[in-house]
Structure formats: C-alpha cells, structure tokens
Amino acid sequence: MSEEPGQGTGAPDWGVPVHLDVPPMESAGQSSAPISPTPPPGQLPYSPSPQPAGFFPVEARAIPPHLGLALSEGPYADSPASPASAGSAPEERKAVSPSHVLPPNFRGPIPREGDAETIAPRPTWIPAFEDASLGQLHNFPLNKNGWRYTAAGPAAEWLPTTVYKTLELAPEGVHWSWQDRSAFMRISDDAMVVGTDKGYRSVRTNLGVRHGAWYVEVEILAPDASSMPSTPMRDGPHARVGFARREAGLNAPVGWDGYSYGVRDQNGARVTLSRPKPFGRAFGPGDVVGLYIRLPSESTPPPSGTEHSIHQNRVPIRYKGQLYFESLEYPPSKEMEVLMDRNRRGETLCNDADGAPKPAPPGKAADRDEKRPGQAGRAKRAPLRALPTLSGSCIGFTVNGEPQGIAFTDLYDFRPLAAAETAPKKRERKRGADGEITAHTSVSAVLRSRLNAYDDGSLGYYPMVSLYGGARARLIPRDFRYPPPPHLEDVLWSANEARGEPTLHKSPAPAWQPFAARWRECVQEWERHDRAADRDASKIVGAKEGPHLSN
C-alpha cells in the first residue's frame, strides 16, 4: 500500500497545533504559473530554429508557456540578429569588449560590460514579510514547466564559437539551489535554510555527485512565522531527506518515485517508489540527519544500456539583465513510469539493502499482455529497456551521529537510457497554438531540436529535502555537527547487522569526502564540458561553411 502523510508511529513532536480543516494537498505533478508572461501584442518571439538569422513574422501566434523563456520572452534586444540591435545607434548598443569578440552570425545575446565572468550575482531576495527568515526571489527563473536554467557568463576569449560558459550563482560553494526547487519552497537569503507552508515540496542542492563517497548533514528546524501556513496542516509539519536524480519531481516528496531515495521523519522508514519500509528511528526538530552516498569510481566502466557520452544542448538567453543557459529538463522515462505503476500494484519490490528484488507474482497483470480480438495485424510495441543499476552503490543515514544503517544498494544509474530503435513515424501537421508557432515552425519541431538524449554533465545524485506544512531544514555541507568516523560505511553496515539484516552487497568502501569538497571538482567539470561543447560547435560550423569556402 502506498504511503500517505501522517501514517506510521513514533512521529516527532513538532510543537505546533493541529487542525482538521485543511484543503487537499496538490498533486505531485502540478506545475505553477509560467516562468514568464506571454509576449504582448506586437512583440516578436525569438526563433531557435535553424533558419537564416532573423525573427518570426508579425502574424506569429502567442507562444505556449511550456516553450521556455527563449521563445516567450521575445527576441534578444541586444542580439546582432535582432531588429532592435540593427536599427539602434552604436552608442546605444554598448560595444562588445575586445576580449569577447562574437563569431559571424552569432544569434545569442551580446555580452555587456557588467556581465559576471566568475560567479553570477546573488538573486534579488524578498522576505515573506518584514524580518522574515525565509522568502522568495524576484525576477528569477525557476526550473519548472520542463525547462532548466543555469547561470552563464561571457568567455569568448577561450570559447570563440559558443561564447558563453557555465557559472554558479552566489554564494560560492554548496547550498540549496536557488532555481532547482519548487516554486512553493521558500529559501533564506544565504540559501542554506528552506521551508514551505504547503504540502510536500522539495529542493535539491546546487551540485550533485557522480562518483565516489560523500557525506552531508541536514538539520531539521522547528517551524517559524515565515514557514507556517495560515491554517496549520492536518498532519502537522513533516520532513524527509535523501538523494534524488534530476528527473525527480520537485512538487513531490523524496522517495515518491524511483528517481529518489529517502527516509521519513515520522517513523524513520526508508522509502523509494512510494514504498516505505522499517529502517531507523524517528527524527524531528533539533535533530541532525547525516546522509551518506557511495557511487562507483570514475574509472569503473558504466553499465550497458545507458548513454555514456556527455553532450550539451542549450541556448544562452538574457532574462531580466542576467545571462542564463536554457535547456530542457530530463523527463521520466517510460520504463521508470512502468516500474512505478507495478510497485503501486505490489508487483515488484524495490532495491533496498535487505536483498535482491523479488519477481512479480502471477495474476491479472500477466493476462493483460495476452492478445485480444482485433489485434492480429497491429504492430507490436517496442520492448521496455532494462533499468541499469550501479553495482556497489549505496545510501546510508545517521541521526545525531547514531548510525541507522545502509538503506539502499545498487542504485539506478543516473545516465540516460540508450535510445531504443523505433520505426519511423509518419509526419503529422499539428494545428492550433500548441502545435504551430508559424507556418514553418511548430512546437514539436522546437522541442525536438532541444531534446538531449545524452548526459549533459548535470546528471547524478543530489541531496534533497522535502518539507510539509511549515517544516524547515538547514544544509550543513562542512563543519559537521556530528563528524563521522573515517570508516563510516563499515559503521553503517554494522547497524544493519545488529538488526539481523543480510549484508550481501557489502564491499570495501573508499574514504568519504565532505560535500563541500564537491564545489571545486564541479567547477573543473564545467570548464571541461564548456570547452568540449565549443569544439563540437566549431566542427559543426566548419562543416556548414566548408563548401562555401572551397568555391
């Protein structure tokens, strides 16, 4: 049976009143308002389609909000290809710095004198009310509606084709992500504390991990005036902590699907695929939960069935004066959705630390695959791809320094599944505002051009916290309240053995690192990926210009 908030025993005392007149919690997949408003009449949206530099004709339809800022915000006023830039005086266009010479036919925003080149400025933070500890951001794009936004800065001196490089938003170091959080999750001005007055909402850290062993702490805080709802939630505040991939939804709790693994505050149960199981002890305000994750080393060959190459597919945009990269977020795979459905029906068991998954029991699920009348000539569906796992990987937890054990082993691989061979589909012309932007550009064409079937370097496992009904949480990436021993994984496995659980997946563990050490690694990875993307773009440009240069 799937879990619901309020189930279980041993719930911690949050010290807040409980009422029953509470509105229903929003669904996990519900999205909020679009990132930016629809362009006003007469504004010409920017086209990322492979056409001559220019813009859509005046009769272009209103852009659906799910197409992101690059289209819905209109053309770049300072782009060399935009009519505003072409018709303005040189002094109004703010000449590009000599260190940022743009390539011919560049269609992105022009670098400005004040653009950040090392770390992007801190977003404008507005408190929920005067002297509130939590608030929201002003004129800032959140990751939602299927789009992801990353700070960018000019670097044409060493990226002559792509021009822009990846930046991190201040403050420097590991913190809760400004943009990778639910729109209903409030955040402190230093991005270290988050809280919500809604149902379960989630936030990831600004950095994830792909290899090695890492440790981070999350302190559970009591609600305050900036996080409490006007009408307290029926079950009171709650919190969950764990690790999640990029595909995990931000309007659902950690452990809701197969993309995340976590523990619950009420009874310390471990949960993934919405299947809670007994694990550790309950925790609440004042407690510090330690999160440990171990992934295969970088030298370990990746499992078969995944895309191993790193390839970026993004466009630079300028939004409210700040530069960003816009890219499509990775959607849940069909295979993971099927796995989620089977677990809801109790047909499979998830990969906990107590042994291998059990096979699905026979029953009606098998009967559904039998051929039915009238299906003799119907083409067979493409078989579902296997979901590879990371051998030797595991996740464990501590509470106030007390080891709770290893909760999950053989985590699902964070890389995209290898593309399945499918028969070509007949092209169909879609009609309406959601299907056609102009006579030559459709929504599906734009989305296809922006899809990335490869790892863009951002995939991995991220520390994640999910809060409910006024709960708050503080991230502690260094200077731990309860510093773990050097052999932390062995200590965690000992807790499993003390409960009589098998340790079939136990293997020699590497030395763990504090999550704060991930920052410098990530900056180096960004530079490598930026240089690789520029080389790839240069090859494409050279291939297109080759025939013309030979004439």
TrEMBL record:
<dbReference type="InterPro" id="IPR013320">
    <property type="entry name" value="ConA-like_dom_sf"/>
</dbReference>
<dbReference type="InterPro" id="IPR003877">
    <property type="entry name" value="SPRY_dom"/>
</dbReference>
<dbReference type="GO" id="GO:0048188">
    <property type="term" value="C:Set1C/COMPASS complex"/>
</dbReference>
<feature type="domain" description="B30.2/SPRY">
    <location>
        <begin position="154"/>
        <end position="347"/>
    </location>
</feature>
<protein>
    <submittedName>
        <fullName>Transcription factor, contains a PHD finger motif</fullName>
    </submittedName>
</protein>
<dbReference type="InterPro" id="IPR001870">
    <property type="entry name" value="B30.2/SPRY"/>
</dbReference>
<keyword id="KW-0539">Nucleus</keyword>
<dbReference type="InterPro" id="IPR043136">
    <property type="entry name" value="B30.2/SPRY_sf"/>
</dbReference>
<feature type="region of interest" description="Disordered">
    <location>
        <begin position="531"/>
        <end position="551"/>
    </location>
</feature>
<dbReference type="InterPro" id="IPR037353">
    <property type="entry name" value="ASH2"/>
</dbReference>
<feature type="region of interest" description="Disordered">
    <location>
        <begin position="347"/>
        <end position="383"/>
    </location>
</feature>
<dbReference type="GO" id="GO:0000976">
    <property type="term" value="F:transcription cis-regulatory region binding"/>
</dbReference>
<comment type="similarity">
    <text>Belongs to the cclA family.</text>
</comment>
<feature type="compositionally biased region" description="Pro residues">
    <location>
        <begin position="36"/>
        <end position="51"/>
    </location>
</feature>
<feature type="compositionally biased region" description="Low complexity">
    <location>
        <begin position="75"/>
        <end position="89"/>
    </location>
</feature>
<feature type="region of interest" description="Disordered">
    <location>
        <begin position="1"/>
        <end position="118"/>
    </location>
</feature>
